[in-house]
Write a structure and sequence with these properties.
The structure is a homotetramer. Chain A has helices at about 5-20, 80-90, 100-110, 150-155, 180-200, and strands spanning about 30-35, 35-40, 55-60, 65, 95, 110-115, 130-140, 165, 170-175. Chain A is α+β, with helices and mostly antiparallel strands. In chain A, strands 4-3-2-1-5-9-8-7-6 form a 9-stranded mixed beta sheet, with helices on both faces. The interface of A and B includes residues 129, 130, 187, 197 and 201 of A.
Chain lengths: ~210, ~210, ~210, ~210
């Protein structure tokens, strides 16, 4: 349980997220806030191969304080979306996942993902086993930065949710620190798999046992 | 086949269980008894990242003998459930898994999971290939510690089973030592996948070839 | 491509087979012949954790030449089944897998598994893309050693096949060396997955494109 | 993001592709162009175990400049297919994958794979979220080298595609460098899984949300 610096932690978590299928094809990533600085993985690179020298440092207004030591890297277009969670919720970390199970959740559900009566719901802030979790789904756009406004609205309109699904795209999940962001992403991913299997079995994911 | 101390073994097994999908989202875990001491993984942490300094030591009455060297860690609410198996069955190790295949077994079956005529059944204590395995399913509760009594009853009522499924939650599996607990958890997980695939194919998991 | 001694190779391959789902729950394993000695993984142990000190050495009549340095290990009941392939086919290595896809192949097919028109068929000795692969399926028995005679008959009756499926159990696959045994096991496992997905899609695995 | 020499990179990528299910059973592989030399993995070997000493070096006409240090290795029959992409498209790297999801795409679609309205489409050169990706499918042949002409025709006829699917076989994907080739293979593999899940759900992969 050693506390690792975000520069070391982000590459390690990206390798893990790659193995989980959250950031293949250069998609997905993570941003972590520590001591007033936002640390962010670069864009368009093999996420399972990044190193400490590839991390961007930004201030809380989204301006780059320190570019990566590795030349030629670009800041991700997700940056404004990560900052929505940092600013509107005071998040300590934000994860963007392209998990195919999150994607399929946006196919099975139109505007809101709903699930109830599963133990893993208890891993989400403020929810208990008997509650119905609701995660808003926003439409996808041609460019990632164009999602910023509709994501911000969805965050405001759903104060109980620490995540926003993007249709046919993936999910943004945050938490007070990287541990909570990761825990909530894992719990949601499990709940998306559960929902898919319930639907394949002709049942509903809000079905009560 | 080196004998490893539970303090080293629990972190290694938790990493392996994480990769198997048994303890994502901080759920799941393992407790091992050795020389009159119960060693237990902490609660609410990234299970694939724990180290020797994070392990609790308890006596056989469930009292903490030694808190982890790492500050701020909490004993899991599963503790009384682990102790059911230690006390009622003299278990040497207990595994708690959130495997989604175990979860789906509690959806497909109402009160008892049943499977027959699969080789992996022979990995379960006291069962042969032609037998029908029966694993009891208890209802889930708002808090994990509230499961203790119904789990204790299910253990008493099912002396042939070394496991109790918890509805929409997961499973507790034990054995005379960690090897048997792990073997039986792996065999049951395989049998849950088999049952799911049989049901998806329009067949029954107690179907005789 | 370093040539590794079977004592080092068997533990490494068992770890790999565990990750592939071929030898969980202590099931499955591998035996390799080299310089007139048969090297064999022990029975009933965590296959992903064995070491060089755990390997049995047998002569070509199946007698133990050298027990493992680790005390208390047992020779597998599969031993006579491995020896069927060593004796009847002059195999250099035999793999026993509990892959759930092999198991499901024995559910979907009654007595013979058949597949055709898939590139991976070319990885099987003597088969081309347009051929129909046939793998015999024998009934399972209460004890593994009781399979020896029916497996021997199936080997004799199917000279074109380097594998025998065991109903609701798994598969035995061999080759002239460990590389061919492993290649053929991987190709068959892929073909079993293909067959399952074709059947789930309402198609036949011998369907011609 | 260290630049690695193709001799070191090819074994590392082959291990990764093996874990992804792209090159089991000795199938699949990768060729990389650097400084006027084509580096290529050998044929018919355990792809997750190759080392620097196993790599072929060829000139741009497909002639072997330098055989591997390891004796007895054979050049892959895929070689002319890799060279189609090097010559017709000036590719910097070509990946051949036996992914079962790519295979199933050639079952679900007859002559052209089509998918639309998925974020991962943006990982493919020249495509946006709202576009319909089209990947040509060519019939398989008894020997891999016989695919060369029909693959060359498919490349000419589909200038917008950086990939050719081979019926009941797999896929060839290329890019200006190994990063783009790998990114595009990962994105396509994700899109094949998506298409399969949409079809299993009774929907179409070109369905508009």
């Amino acid at each position: 349980m050693a506390t690792e610096h975000p520069r070391a932690l982000i590459p390690a978590l990206c390798r893990q997220f790659y193995d989980l299928g959250w950031c293949t094809g250069t998609g997905g990533g993570i941003a972590i806030r520590a001591d007033g600085i936002i640390y962010m993985a670069p864009s368009g690179v093999q996420k399972e191969r990044i190193s400490e020298a590839d991390i961007f440092e930004l201030d809380l207004d989204g301006q780059v304080l320190k570019a990566p030591a590795t030349p030629g890297l670009k800041l991700t277009e997700c940056s404004p979306l990560f900052f929505n969670a940092f600013r509107q919720r005071g998040a300590g970390a934000v994860i963007h996942s392209h998990s195919i199970d999150a994607l399929m959740a946006t196919v099975h559900f139109e505007t809101v993902f709903r699930v109830s009566h599963v133990e893993m719901i208890k891993g989400l802030r403020g929810y208990g086993y008997y509650d119905t979790v609701e995660i808003p789904i926003i439409p996808n756009t041609a460019r990632e930065c164009e999602l910023a406004d509709s994501m911000a609205e969805a965050i405001d309109a759903n104060p109980q949710a620490d995540a926003v699904l993007v249709q046919r795209h993936g999910i943004y999940v945050w938490g007070k620190d990287w541990q909570q962001a990761k825990t909530q992403t894992e719990c949601l991913d499990y709940l998306f798999r559960y929902a898919d299997r319930m639907i394949q079995s002709g049942r509903s994911p809000v079905d009560v046992p």
